[in-house]
Design brief:
mainly beta, Quinone Oxidoreductase, Chain A, domain 1, two-stranded antiparallel sheet, about 10% helix
């Protein structure tokens, strides 16, 4: 697949993202693979790309306002089928067991991982995410309308 890879943060004017051919990601047992149709550009993505946030993983595929269609599922996936339209947001995974997670404050989980920051994001043709952190996109929403909604409320 093609992906925009950040290997070292630089000001955006120096074009720090490089189009690269890499292997398609393979979903784990509880994951869905998403064929990406749209990925928004958030100012947080620019902070990551330009190094204004400390790098947690390099190289990294930035982008966290992802919309696409499930094109492969792990054997334990129950919430989605191939062909379902989904979104992937900034919050990519949590422990699911700490007090914050149990109370619905997953964004405060000490083990939280973020799309395009801790794990590869959406500036690519495909991404993989746990079915627990993929969100169904209702009919009637265009990809361009849905993408920014996957950011609001947790970043910033």
């Amino acid at each position: 697949m093609k992906a925009m890879i950040l290997t070292e943060p630089y000001p955006i004017e120096k074009e720090p993202l490089v189009m690269t051919d890499i292997n398609d990601p393979i979903p784990g047992p509880e994951d869905v693979r998403v064929k990406i149709s749209t990925c928004g550009i958030c100012h947080t993505d620019l902070h990551v790309i330009e190094g204004e946030l400390p790098s947690k993983k390099l190289p990294i595929i930035p982008g966290h306002e992802i919309v696409g269609v499930v094109d492969a599922i792990g054997e334990k996936v129950t919430r989605f089928r191939e062909g379902d339209k989904v979104g992937v947001a900034w919050l990519n995974s949590t422990c699911g067991e700490c007090d914050f997670c149990v109370r619905g404050n997953e964004n405060l989980c000490e083990e939280s991982r973020f799309t395009g920051y801790d794990v590869d994001g959406g500036y690519a043709q495909f991404t993989v995410v746990s079915e627990d952190f993929a969100y169904p996109i209702p009919p009637g929403f265009s990809d361009l309308e849905a993408a920014p909604l996957l950011c609001a409320g947790i970043v910033g």
